[in-house]
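Batch job 17 of 40 flagged for manual review because the log was empty.
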Amino acid sequence: MATVEKIRKDIEKVKGKISAQQKRLRELEAQLTEEENLEIVRMVKAVRMDNKELTAFLKAYASGLITLPDGMMEAEAVPEPDDNMEDSDHEE
């Protein structure tokens, strides 16, 4: 029966590790959301529109009244030189 106890202890140890990893995952997801939000805020501030202008622009774009120039979405997808960093530099 020592084997059964060993397995039970191993199960508890693994459950603890899973719990810690789930907590870490939630923290990373919150950090990602915060960084995405900061990026959006920086982009919005860069266009230097006031609240009313930005709201009108977004509504017009969402409704299809205006469209982006051809190729603009592809240009945005190209990473900038400082965006090429690997995830390992943020490992804790």
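Reviewer: the log was empty due to a logging misconfiguration, but the result itself is present. Helices lie at 2-46, 51-63, 72-77. Unflagging and moving on to job 18.
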